[in-house]
Each structure stands twice: as C-alpha cells, then as structure tokens.
User: Fold these one by one.
Assistant:
Number 1:
Amino acid sequence: MTDNDEFRKYEIGGAYHWKWYLADYLGYRTFVRNIMAELPNAGRVLDIGCGDGLMSFASFRRGLSVFGIDNNELAIGLAEIVCADAVAGKFEAAFQAVGDDALSPDAQARKSARAAAGELVFACRSAFDLTEDGAFDCAICVEVIEHVAEPAVLLAKIHRAVRNFAIITTPDGTGETPGPYDHQIWTPQAFYDFLGGYRFEKLDLRSGTIAVKLFRD
Ligand SMILES: C[S@@+](CC[C@H](N)C(=O)[O-])C[C@H]1O[C@@H](n2cnc3c(N)ncnc32)[C@H](O)[C@@H]1O
C-alpha cells in the first residue's frame, strides 16, 4: 500500500497539469511561474511528487537538470511521454501563446542533447525511499505533503536531499475539510508550527496556498 494508491486523477484527467498550465486553471500558470522564479537557472533539482511532469519540464526548460519522482506509475508514464514531446519542441508554440519567453535558438537546439544526457529523468519511486544526502541543489515538493500519511518523515527526507533549499507548498486548509486524496491539511500557522526547528522563509506564490522555502542549513 502506498500513499496514493487512490490518487486516480491521472486515470480520470490524463496529463491534467499541462492542461491547467495552458488554461491557467485556478491560477496554476502563475503559480508555476512564481515557483520557477525562485529557482536557479542551473544546477540539479529534485521534483518530489512530479506527477505528469509539468513542473519538471518547466525547470528543465529554464536550464536545470531535473530528477522527477512520483509513486504513481501512470503519472510517471505520462511525464515521460509528454515531456518527450515537449523536449522535441511540440508545445513551444502553445507556451509562447500563453506568454512564455521563446527559447533562444541555442537553448532550443540543446534541449534534446540535454535530455539525452540525463538532464530530465523520471522514476516511479516513493519520496519515502529517498536516501540521498545533499545530492540536489534544490527540490520542489508542490501540493504533495498533504497526501502522505507521515508528513514529518517526508519533510526530513526533503531536507536531507538538498544542498541549498526546497520549495514546499500545500493548500491553505483554513476553513476547509480534507479532500478525497488528502491525509491532512493545515492552516498557515499550523504548517509553520509543523516545520518546527527547520529554517524556512514564507513565500507568497498563490492565494489559497501555503508555500515555504526550507533551507538545508
Ligand atoms: C496534486 S499532485 C501534484 C503534482 C505536481 N507536484 C504539481 O503540482 O504539478 C500530487 C502528486 O504527489 C504524488 N505523491 C503522493 N504521495 C507520494 C509519495 N509518497 N511519493 C511520491 N509521490 C507521491 C501523487 O502521485 C501526485 O502525482
């Protein structure tokens, strides 16, 4: 039994994060752009609970080397298929139509070589199997922690995996009841309390979302 055996959104909606991005559904495109603006342009990023790979690809597109993990096999299958098309440039016109900057001819030409060199890799793997210590410059863990039974264990895994920082987001649960895929939700203050002794900075990425930058040191 994994934490998301019942996470059926991919069966129902396919690669729905890509659709959300292009449609800016619930402000998702702005949210992604705000997350990307917090990341460096180079280095190695771990995308924990990467789903269908939209944020992994956005990170790769800005120059990062990406390792995306998710314990949902269908999600990883979608991430691999859709990202292969994205690397080949099939969505560049769609991205530019929604206001993303065009890639330089050099960056566009290098995408396939970068992907072939292992700069955009996915694995069907639980975040709880992470054993890496400082193997990534940074990590993103976006709308995942509310879905797991042991969030404190996940937090420790994320903290250990990075050299610099991790961006963690979760829906603001103020006045809400947990959804069908949620183990728990937090108010902002309860989430900051949950982060306890870790050093972190609050981020404002989207209304209705709690977001922090959690530092390794
Ligand atoms: C709401 S989706 C978020 C996807 C992506 N981070 C985004 O925001 O675009 C939550 C994801 O967390 C994944 N997930 C849940 N528990 C996990 C675990 N223990 N290890 C890895 N992934 C997990 C789910 O399969 C799902 O793809």
Number 2:
Amino acid sequence: MVPYEGYIALAEKLNALTPGSHAKKTALFSTGAEAVENAIKIARSYTKRSGVIAFGGAFHGRSLFAVSLTGKVMPYKAGFGPFRRRSTTPPSPATARTSPR
Ligand SMILES: Cc1ncc(COP(=O)(O)O)c(C=O)c1O
C-alpha cells in the first residue's frame, strides 16, 4: 500500500473521531471481503491465535477466505470448496433471539 494525501487525511479524521485515549490506527480497504480478511490478519498477528468465530448464516464476502467464513452455502459456496474449517459457528444473534430455548 502506498499512502497518499487523501488516504492519510481520512485516516487521521477517523482516528480523531474514534473515542478513547489509546493509540489509534486506520486502514482502508476496497471491499468488505478485503476488510474481513485484513481484520483477521491483524487479529492473528496481535493474538498469535488462528481460530475465528463466524456466525452461522452470516455473509462475509466472496473471496476464498471470506467465503469460508460465510455461513450461507447457496449461492456463495456451492461447488467452490474445500474451504478452511470454521473454528466456531454460533447462531447469529438474530437467530438466537428467535429460537426457542
Ligand atoms: C458483513 C459483511 N461482510 C462482508 C461483506 C462483503 O463485502 P464485499 O462484497 O464488498 O466484498 C458484506 C457485504 O454485504 C457484508 O455485509
């Protein structure tokens, strides 16, 4: 990534708007799938853990790793496997709210 003036200006604005007195960093991505994959890379680097929790039925994008986290098979996954095994797949909060206990 080559930072340019507009990118840096927007990142600084977002950092200033983010609540808290901790150090802040901003990275901008072109697509949701790219944001999801980079969030996982950052979390892995920080935690040194590889597991990922993805809600069942959720959509996380069409790239190979993002689609491996996506819960919906049709039309996103059918015929495109094998995928990375999802570490944990709890029901989505919406499903959990409506499911009988
Ligand atoms: C929660 C979530 N993650 C990822 C994506 C993927 O975004 P994109 O299609 O820009 O890669 C979407 C798109 O709707 C989304 O809603």
